[in-house]
Specification:
Elements (H helix, E strand, L loop, with lengths): L9 H10 L36 H18 L4 H11 L1 H8 L1 E3 L5 E4 L9 H8 L9 E8 L7 E8 L3 E2 L2 H23 L13 H9 L1
Antiparallel strand pairs: 1-2, 1-5, 3-4
Helix pairs in contact: 2-6, 3-6
Length: 212
Amino acid sequence: MLNCLTTDWAELWAAAWAETDLSGPDGWLSDCPVLPPDAFAKLGPAWTPALPLRSALARRQALVELDVLAARGLGLSLEELQTMFRISFTTLRKYDGGTWYDQNGRVVFTCQNKAGGVPRKIWEAELLPRKDEPGFTYSHTEADQAFTDAKTPRTTLYAAPFFAMDRERDYETAWRKLDGIERVDSIGSIPAKVPQAPDLTAEGTGSQEAKA
């Protein structure tokens, strides 16, 4: 979902699916309502353009969940994962906390240079003051060279409210949701207790049978 972005990856996708069936009722380990709710429902054995995660917000959340899964697999605690992120990944922490998203999961502004969104001057003067205003939209046109050799104009419509994410809090949310899933799975795997038959060899019963 993160790497298989074009049809060139279709063969790899099919091979990976055959080894690990990804179907099921899984959803995001997050409460963010802007994440695409049907991202996992679209998964299937054949690659289609709808399978990859396209929005910046969805791709970020997938990386958050991979961090949590890796940490749990290595035997780390939630607090250790959060501390590692805070102390050892200061640049990522700065960029992650300084990125704002719109209601379509697009990056509307980021403090990371050339990583999408509008320029800082436009963000601070025109968008930030109206970040919490429902229904507010802003159209931004810039030269794009992503798919062609020549720069071509590309217009993006950003929809408010705009919001930033908190990676440490997102780690905690994903961690707690996994705890809940594992708890349900473990409860479901415990067999029901079978009532025990009365012990006919008990002293009282045996003595009655002897007297009879």
